[in-house]
Each structure stands twice: as C-alpha cells, then as structure tokens.
Write a sequence for this structure.
C-alpha cells in the first residue's frame, strides 16, 4: 500500500493488502495500483484549533523518543542552511536535516513522537513513470471489464474509453511522492535530481502517514469496498490534512519553510466524476477530524484508529453520525446465458457509497457539461466541494453486481445495482436523479415495457428502474429482451408507472404518490437561467482553484 502525493488530481484506491484480506471485494488491481493512495486537500480548511507553541523551557537532555518537537538533534524551530537560499533546492547531504526538522514540527502539532525515522529517498519522474505499470498490479481482462461496467453504471467513463486507462491518465506525471507502510519509506519524485526541490508541506504530510503507521498500522484496516476505503481514507487523510493545514499556517506565521513554485497542472483528459469520487475523503476528511478533535483533542482522534474506524463514507460527509451501511447480498436471478462476474473465483460485489453517488450526479459541474447537480450546488468560488447533497444523503447501503455472458466483453455485459435508502422519499429522490442522468445521455423510453429506457451511444444498453419503498433497483442489459434474462421479472410489459418527465409525466413521483413539479435545471448543469456560474471566466477560475488545491496537497 502506498500513500502518494499527487500534483494533479486525487485518486483514492484500496490497498492490495485489504483486497487480499477479504474474499468478496470491489477492489480489483485496476483501481488498486498496489494500494496507491492520494493526498488530502487544503480546500476549505476548517477552523484549526489553537496549538500552543513549544516553550523555551526545554529539557537539558532531550531525546527523540520522549521529547515532542525534537528529533535527532534538531528542534522544530531550528534554522537550517537551506532556509537562507532562494527557492526550495536541497542538496543531498542536507536532506536528512530537513527531514528531522519536519518530523519535529509534525510532532509539535500532532503531540505524539515518532518511534523511528522513515527513510526518505528521491527518484526522477522518469524512474517513477517506468514503475507506474507495476503500481497497478496484474490487471486481468476481468478486472478491466469490472471497472468499465462500474464506471458506465456511474456515467463517468463511456464505452469509447477504458476506465483503467482513465485512472492512469489521472496519475500520469502527477505523483510528487509517496509513503510505503510495508517499508516505512518516503519517496519524493523530482523532475531533476541535479536540482532537487523539496516541498516541506508535502514531506510533512507523508511524515504524518509514517507517524500514523507507527502508531496504528495503516495496513491493518478493512478497505475491501469502495465505501469502506473512502471511510478509512476520511480518517487517515483527514488527520494528515488537519495537521498539514496547521503546518502551513505556521509556515506563514512563524516558521521558515521550503515551498517551491508549482506549475498549473494540465486538466486535459480528467474524468471529473472519478476525480470527485476519489477526492471526497480529502475534502471532507479534515472537517471530520476537526469534529472529533473538538470533542476530545488528539486523544479522541487516536481512539478512532484504535476502536472506532468510520464504517462508511457517509460518516465522513456527516461528522457525528453513525451511518454503518446495511448488509447486501443481491440474489442471482439470471438465466443460464448470464452469470455474475467472478474474480479469483468469487463474485465481485461493488459497494459504492454516498461519496461516489454524489460524484456521479456532479460529473459535469466543472466543465459546464450537462449534470444533474448544478455547479452552483456542488462547487464554491473558493474551490470547496459540497458533498452533502439531498439527492444522496439518505444512502443506507447498496451493491452492484456485474453480469456477463461467456464472451466476457463489455458489449455482452450488464449489471444489477440495488440501493437502500433511509426512507421512500430519499429513494425517490435518488431514482429521479438517475432518471435525470439517463435523460442527459439521450435515453428514450421503450414503448410497452414498464419503466424502461434505451441509450444507443456512449453508454449503450437498456435500463430498467424499479422502486419498492426505500429500495431502488437498476438493471442494465445490452438489449431490452435481455433485461429479464439478467434479472428475472425485470421490465415487464405494460405502461410506465413512474411519474417523471422522461416518461412524459409532469414531475417526479413522491413516496405518497402525489406528483411534484418537474425540475429541468439539470439539463446543462446549471440553474433555470442555463448558466451554472455567471461567466466563463469564473468557471475557469473554479477549475483553476480545484487544480491548484490538488497541486498543493496530493497525498
């Protein structure tokens, strides 16, 4: 498992260790580049608690293991020769001193001491890029099929593009460094070994991960589903970012720190739905950790690692709530032609929680393309992301199972996605949002087949939507006739029963059967005025802010 500093966009993926520990998992090598983890964000920094500065009343004989703010001869506020030079260039023989001082500074904020000093190495970007394939592990054809169907179900990566390649494009040229728990090693990636620049905040963030690993063991947590992985990352990355934010504030107010200039990253090729989904723990995590800190200081944060790991992404998005998802096990009701996709002889069951679902509805908000959520609803001018949305906040559990014929190709694939919601109203809101999403991708109702639509391009197939109280079931198949082959009883003959404008209704059907007024603000990704954020310049500024945030803190 690696926790990586990214220069462009965050990508949260489950560790190989977690995937191997659980038989039924939705983490394949395609989304788990050997457990590569991204960084946290400075976006919308929470109000950080006042941390008392280290006093001058220091012990005469400080020790690394017992004295907070002191590591191997260096205090947190010591001056170094590199402080007096332009830029953030650090000669090889001076790197260790920078590491020691950064460790001491992390200790001062986090109020814990390091047990050991992690190794810190520097490699070239070319070396890292040559190793990128190995980070993604042995990606089989079934892994690729699983990821392609997953992200087609979420309308994030279409049929013309490979989901695994989309992930790799997010990583391409973007990793600035990482921490590897299995070796207790930090690796910094530099464009030029002859003139290495060190971002002290990047180093400090990775040092927080090293401290977490020494104290709690980062490879021991259950990351067997996307939702569990996001929950764990919300704590791990939220903790590191919470420290990181205070570290940055002290760099501005009282410490001399190494901060190199960074270039604006390239946004071409970014799958924003993937970005938002994987970015959630790093945007919401600091707020979650701040909430825990406010209740009991760092001792309360430590306790969450030891006996109260968050169970769901919803607990990160809604601090202070207990949101453990209900167990799911979709019954196989397919014909002999179809079977659930199995990886390593086990059916792959994907659990995509609230963070992924809201990201699905926000996919077009940055670029101004059609989106169910408007830019005004999802993004702020400061670059903050609003993951707490009515359309997804009632998620209580769910599971997606991919189906395939013997051909095992994306052309002969389908899925059953069943979600549970806190009540029928929340279920209806999600159902209508997914119907809006289908409408934005030119879905057309199938005459004479109940609550069924068809898309011919980009995300081709027939889609059937069913709601039973607080449960919503979505089934996709290559053709309308094959819907009932994948799940018996799906798409019966008859008229459409859902009151939604895609079926010619006047509005969305509420849980009590009364009709609500339709909302076509989603078409175009904005409000009724048709312009999600006034002016292209402002939208471009929001994009720039998001990417600038990613530059600063990609762990």
């Amino acid at each position: 498992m690696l926790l990586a500093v990214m220069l462009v966009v965050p990508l949260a993926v489950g560790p190989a260790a977690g995937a191997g520990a659980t038989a039924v998992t939705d983490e394949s090598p395609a989304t788990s580049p050997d457990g590569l983890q991204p960084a946290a964000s400075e976006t919308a920094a929470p109000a950080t608690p006042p941390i008392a500065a280290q006093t001058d009343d220091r012990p005469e004989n400080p020790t690394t293991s017992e004295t907070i703010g002191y590591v191997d001869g260096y205090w947190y506020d010591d001056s170094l020769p590199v402080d007096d030079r332009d830029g953030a260039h650090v000669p090889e023989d001076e790197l260790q001193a920078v590491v020691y001082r950064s460790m001491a500074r992390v200790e001062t904020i986090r109020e814990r001491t390091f047990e050991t000093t992690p190794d810190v190495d520097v490699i070239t970007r070319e070396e890292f890029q040559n190793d990128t394939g190995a980070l993604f592990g042995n990606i089989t054809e079934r892994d690729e099929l699983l990821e392609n169907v997953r992200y087609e179900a979420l309308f994030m990566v279409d049929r013309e593009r490979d989901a695994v390649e989309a992930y790799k494009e997010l990583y391409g040229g973007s990793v600035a460094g990482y921490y590897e728990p299995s070796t207790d090693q930090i690796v910094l990636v530099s464009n030029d070994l002859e003139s290495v620049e060190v971002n002290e905040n990047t180093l400090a963030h990775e040092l927080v991960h090293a401290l977490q690993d020494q104290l709690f063991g980062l490879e021991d947590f259950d990351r067997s589903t996307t939702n569990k992985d996001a929950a764990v990352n919300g704590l791990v990355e939220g903790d590191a970012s919470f420290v990181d934010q205070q570290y940055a504030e002290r760099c501005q107010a009282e410490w001399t720190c190494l901060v190199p200039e960074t270039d604006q990253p390239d946004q071409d090729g970014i799958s924003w739905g993937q970005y938002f989904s994987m970015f959630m723990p790093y945007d919401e995590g600091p707020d979650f950790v701040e909430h825990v800190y406010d209740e009991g200081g760092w001792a309360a944060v430590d306790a969450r690692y030891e006996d109260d790991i968050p169970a769901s992404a919803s607990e990160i998005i809604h601090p202070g709530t207990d949101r453990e998802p209900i167990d799911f096990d979709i019954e196989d009701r397919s014909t002999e032609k179809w079977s659930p996709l199995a990886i390593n002889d086990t059916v792959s069951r994907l659990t995509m929680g609230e963070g992924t679902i809201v990201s699905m509805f926000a996919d077009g908000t940055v670029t101004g393309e059609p989106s169910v959520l408007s830019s005004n609803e999802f993004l702020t001018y400061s670059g903050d992301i609003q993951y707490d949305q009515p359309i997804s906040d009632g998620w209580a559990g769910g599971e997606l199972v991919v189906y395939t014929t013997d051909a095992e190709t994306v052309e002969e694939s389908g899925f059953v996605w069943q979600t549970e919601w806190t009540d029928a109203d929340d279920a209806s809101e999600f159902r209508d949002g997914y119907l809006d999403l289908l409408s934005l991708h030119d879905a057309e109702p199938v005459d004479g087949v109940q609550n069924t639509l068809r898309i011919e391009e980009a995300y081709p197939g027939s889609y059937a939507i069913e709601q039973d109280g607080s449960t919503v079931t979505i089934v996709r198949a290559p053709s309308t006739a094959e819907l009932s082959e994948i799940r018996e009883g799906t798409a019966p003959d008859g008229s459409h029963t859902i009151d939604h404008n895609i079926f010619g209704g006047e509005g969305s059907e509420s849980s009590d059967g009364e009709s609500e007024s339709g909302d076509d603000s989603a078409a175009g990704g904005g409000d009724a005025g048709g312009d999600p954020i006034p002016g292209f310049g402002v939208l471009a500024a929001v994009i720039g802010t998001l990417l600038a945030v990613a530059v600063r803190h990609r762990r």
